[in-house]
Each structure stands twice: as structure tokens, then as C-alpha cells.
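User:
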Amino acid sequence: MRPITGREELDLFSQLPYVLNEELGDDLAGGRRRPEWMWVALRDGRLLARAAWWSRSAGNAPLFLDILDIDDSTSGSDRVDIGVRLLHTAMAATLPDGSLPPEYSRFVPPDWRENAVTRQAVEDRMTVLGETGARLFVERLRLEWSPDSPVPEPSRRLVFRPVHKGGELVALMASALDGTLDAHGRDDLTRMSVHEAAVRHYEDELARYTSPRDWWRIATLPHGEPVGFVIPARNDYNAIIAYLAVLPSHRGKGYIDDLLAEGTRVLAAQHVPRIRASTDVGNVPMANAFQRAGYVNFEREINMTWS
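Assistant: Predicted structure:
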């Protein structure tokens, strides 16, 4: 059990199939991955398991454990044991002593529970994580809009304007956290104030996007009262709807559709090949809004955490 030596071992690391394999080379070149974060378990040269962490940019600590694979042709008890041993070894060598391991993220088919083979593979990996102390945190829908879908019409009820300054957006984000259905947002509020949670998300996520901030939109009523906001952006891989929220006093009036339509229009005007978004399975109003806007649930995401 060891980390890979460098890009020359990417073919070895990629012998187990997963949707992220095609991004590994670019991630290494961009500093989002490092060879010492990419571990393999080998037996007589055969890859039996692998694990890897990801970060947003070079110089940062691991942010997510987003690859954990085991050879599904190995017998059940043996493959889980190999996965557990590899993860324990890799975590001990990669993560700071006494630190809480980064969150685990896994992309799975939208119908993964309905296919016996796929379900077994997903549950085996979750068992490996569970043996190291992780628990299921949330399951999320991964959504995609394609240019084949109609571009939404502009809202006739709301006025959209750019975000004037970061503090304005942080204040709106803090207000929108009241009654949020987002699992990560609710978890933040168990450990910090509403303002602290909004600042953290703004600084750690939104402020890092290099796409133009004049894409960001605040929605108001005709007389200027804010209703909500939408953050269209581009990450290292795709155009995305990074954040979308309706303020508590304006919920239940369908404004979520106007906001999502505006965010989609902004990105569609850039002639992007696709727009990606995600929301918790339990956030039914948000999921329904994406479906109405023509977004397709192409994957799910399993998030597990250590506490």
C-alpha cells in the first residue's frame, strides 16, 4: 500500500473505473491533486483498491476524499477488508495528526438502488468508510441543463441587478439560511452563527470562482425590495448554478423559478455546453424547480462525514 510516484502511474491508478478518471491528469497539472494524496493497494502488480483526495487549488490541504474504489471482482469480505486497510494507511500518512478527515464524496447513478450490482458496489464502499468511523451525511441530486432545452424567458415579476458588493450578498445569504433545507447549511448553524456561516461560505466557495462576478444577480420586487439571489459561475470543470436562494418572507410564491431561469439565462448566453447544479434529495422544492426548468438528474452524490 503506497501513494503513486507521479503522473507516470496514472494508468495504474486508473485501472479501476470511475467517472473522475478522465479528470485526474488535469487535476494533477492544476495542483488540485498530488501524487502523495493518491494511494493504491497492490498485490502482485494488480490494483485491488485506491483512494485519493482533492483540493480546490495548489497549496491547500485535502478538501474532499472523492475517490475510494475496490476491485469488485474480489470476494466480498476480502475487498472490504482491503479497502479498510488502505484507507486507514492512507489517512494516517496523508492527514494531519488529530485532524477530522475531510468529507467523502461519491458520484453514483441516479437509480443506484434499483440495480443489484451497482447497489452492492456503492454499499461496499460505504461499508469501508463506516469501518473507519464515517457516517452518511446527505445524498444529493446532480442536475444538468443542456442547450437542447429551451432558454427560459425573462421574469415578468422580478427585477434583476448585479451584486454591488460582497457584504450585501453575505447579508442576504445570512437571511436565506433561516429555514434552509440544505444539510450543509443546517450543519453549519449547529457550530456557528448565521453571519459566520454566510461569511464562511462566501469566502470559501463563492469568492474563489474566477468567472465574472457581474454574472451574479440579486432579484428584487419592482420597488427594490430584495426577494432572493442566484449565483451563476464557472468552476474548474463546468458552468454551474453555484447558489440559489429565496428570502424567507418571499417563499411559497414561485420566485424560485424566476431566479433559476435568470441564472440559466446568464450562463446560456455564454454558449456553454452544459450547466451543472446540485441539491439535497430532501430539498424537494429546489429539486422540483430544477425539474421544471428542464434540468435532468444525471447522477446522485453520496456524502459521508467523520464526527
